[in-house]
TrEMBL record:
It comes from Caenibius tardaugens NBRC 16725. The keyword Transmembrane helix applies. Keywords: Membrane, Transmembrane, Transmembrane helix. One of its GO terms (cellular component) is outer membrane. It comes from the Bacteria. The gene is traL. The chain crosses the membrane at residues 23-52. InterPro entries: T4SS_TraL (IPR009838). This is Conjugal transfer protein TraL.
Length: 88
């Protein structure tokens, strides 16, 4: 069995020139923009073009933590986004 490992294990996974989370965001936005079409589709593409440079100023893992803060996902063994105190 042959498996490939990246040269630098701490480096993020890259697809084309996007990180893995950016690539998913780009593909889903383009998919929805093509289906919706018209002015709304172009506004989605414009929002994507503004979001990607802003996102690159943030640390790695920003999108999953943003989804957690908005309540879309939950992390295992981790308090919810509305809890202000946590006791182990």
């Amino acid at each position: 069995m042959d498996e490939r490992l990246p040269q630098y294990l701490h480096g993020p996974v890259q697809i084309l020139w996007f990180g893995a989370d950016e690539f998913i965001l780009v593909m889903s936005t383009i998919f929805v923009a093509v289906i919706v079409g018209g002015l709304i589709g172009w506004m989605l593409i414009l929002a994507l073009l503004l979001f990607i440079p802003w996102k690159r100023t943030k640390p790695r893992g920003f999108i999953p933590h943003l989804a957690w803060r908005w309540g879309f996902v939950s992390f295992r063994h981790y308090p919810g986004p509305t809890q202000t105190r946590f006791y182990e």
